[in-house]
């Protein structure tokens, strides 16, 4: 069941997402991973070719990132990657952690037995995917686990707010960070136990720590890639 739900999510992202959003997701991952650096220009033609779309959705996708502050448009020159700092990364994770913690606490009070069963199935599938080295499936199942918790909270407004924050942190890249998968294998069962026991405060606290720890891992990875100089200046 969990794998089917994850496959559905993956299908939506690859087949049904609007083309500009597909472009924005691709370039966003390049930026957050440090594959393209602050100050680099993003040529619409190259972006379009990389994603397999025409220049119009490529430009529209870059305009999405402009609205997010990840790129800016220089007249007569094109789109350029804007600087972001360690604190920018930590702020994004902080916002995600606060919303996710509140949703987890509410889920502990409202989750159904069927919801618990889906979480258990998803986590077992996650463990199997890790053991088999299925990186894409690991990312999808990790997303599915959190999505089940968020939906179980039955708070549409908080879920929408969380979605607006999470889109800045590409799911596949984040799941590939060294140490993230190992930590998730330990922390997800603790979250599941708190939900099963309907311990709202514990579920919220565990979720907050789980998300915030990811900020440290991502900052460490980006430092290792030489993204920042001392003082948070872009390299």
TrEMBL record:
Residues 17-84 form the HTH gntR-type domain. It comes from the Bacteria. InterPro entries: GntR_C, TF_FadR/GntR_C, Tscrpt_reg_HTH_GntR, WH-like_DNA-bd_sf, WH_DNA-bd_sf. Keywords: DNA-binding, Transcription, Transcription regulation. PANTHER family: GLUCONATE OPERON TRANSCRIPTIONAL REPRESSOR, TRANSCRIPTIONAL REGULATOR, GNTR FAMILY. This is GntR family transcriptional regulator. The lineage of its organism: Bacteria, Bacillati, Actinomycetota, Actinomycetes, Kitasatosporales.
């Amino acid at each position: 069941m969990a794998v089917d739900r994850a496959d559905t999510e993956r299908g939506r992202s690859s087949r049904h997402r609007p083309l500009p959003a597909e472009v924005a997701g691709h370039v966003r991952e390049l930026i957050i991973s440090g594959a393209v650096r602050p100050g680099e220009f993003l040529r619409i033609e190259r972006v379009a070719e990389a994603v397999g779309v025409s220049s119009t959705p490529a430009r529209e996708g870059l305009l999405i990132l402009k609205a997010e502050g990840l790129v800016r448009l220089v007249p007569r020159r094109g789109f350029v990657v804007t600087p972001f700092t360690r604190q920018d990364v930590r702020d994004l994770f902080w916002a995600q952690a606060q919303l996710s913690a509140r949703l987890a606490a509410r889920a502990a009070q409202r989750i159904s037995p069927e919801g618990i069963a889906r979480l258990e199935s998803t986590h077992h599938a996650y463990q199997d995917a890790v053991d088999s080295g299925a990186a894409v499936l690991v990312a999808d199942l990790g997303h599915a686990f959190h999505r089940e918790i968020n939906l179980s909270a039955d708070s549409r407004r908080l879920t929408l707010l969380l979605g607006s924050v999470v889109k800045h942190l590409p799911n596949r890249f984040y799941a590939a960070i060294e140490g993230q998968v190992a930590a998730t294998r330990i922390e997800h069962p603790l979250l599941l136990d708190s939900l099963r026991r309907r311990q709202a405060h514990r579920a919220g606290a565990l979720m907050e720590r789980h998300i915030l720890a990811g900020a440290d891992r991502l900052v460490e990875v980006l430092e290792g890639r030489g993204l920042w100089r001392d003082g948070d200046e872009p390299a």
